[in-house]
Amino acid sequence: MIYVVLGVILILIIVVAAKGIRIIRPFEKGLVERLGQFRREAEPGIHFIIPFIERITKVDLRERVIDVPPQEVITKDNVVVTVDAVIYYEVSDAFKVVYNVRSFELAAVKLAQTNLRNVIGELELDQTLTSRERINTKLREVLDDATDKWGVRVTRVEIKKIDPPSDIMEAMSKQMKAERMKRAAILEAEGYKQSQILKAEGDRNATILKAEGEAEAVRKVAEAQKYKLIAEAEGEAQAIMNVFSAIHKGNPTSDLIAIKYLEALREIADGKATKIFLPFEASSILSSIGAIAEVLKTQDTDQELEE
């Protein structure tokens, strides 16, 4: 009988000792209470408490997420949209999260829903649909400030979806289609305009090149003609110089000069001229020509008499 009692006592001691051992994991923090009063915080590791007198509450310090149920929110332009969001948070003060708020997650959800109405109520529909980052940042700042006294830090808030009414979605779809068609028409017009501009520039450049080519051809022809005239003039000048030099070297008589002058007159007249104007300086030459004519006439008379 004594052994049975001792065995029971031993078992009770073991059970009581086991209830007095508590293990705090690395991502947790413990709050130790003694007879309903807060005594201390327990860091990760093994801790011993007095059974039935002390108790320990474990607080998870890891980042957690709260799903905010979808709710209807009215925008600034009186459009009702359904918004769904999620909140990421982590405990920064285990004492406050246990003793300053009874149910943090429920309080955070209600706070997020209220502030969603306030934030989106300041925006129009188009801004609401295109400003998710702005809404996330604003909502996180509001929630972080409000939950600071609860020992919680809101790390980020994400809007999962924003659903406008079906009729608004249909109108937006039509508007987007119209915008796309408008952009397509503008791009097509811009393309046609650009093609016409390029074509006009091409025609202009072709005309300019053609004119430049013709001008270059005219210049080349003029240069060739100029070269020809210069060459002919130089040839004639050289010929005159050669003739003049030869005449002076040969010391010609007046009779020879007169004969050459007559030949020149014949070339000038060419059988077509009826009148020839001679310069005053030709009088000496004409007298020589008369003398030659008299000589020739005398010779002809002598021949007739002999016959």
The number of domains: 4
Q: Report the top-level CATH class of the largest domain.
A: Alpha Beta
Poorly predicted runs of 5 or more residues? none
Portion of residues in helices? 55-70%
Query: Which series of helices and strands comes N to C?
Result: HEEEEEEEHHHHEHHH
Strand order of the largest sheet: 3-2-5
* Strand elements, count: 8
CATH superfamily of the largest domain: Band 7 domain
Summing up helix and strand content along with how strands pair, one would put the structural category as: alpha+beta
User: Could you say what the CATH architecture of the largest domain is?
Assistant: 2-Layer Sandwich
Q: Mean pLDDT score, rounded?
A: 79
Characterize the overall form.
rod-shaped
CATH names the topology of the largest domain as Tetrahydropterin Synthase, Chain A
Strand portion = 15-25%
Main sheet attributes: strand count, strand direction, barrel closure: 3 strands, antiparallel
| Count of discrete alpha- or pi-helical segments spanning 4 or more residues | 8
Q: Work out the radius of gyration.
A: 63 Å
Question: Roughly how many Å apart are the termini?
Answer: 211 Å
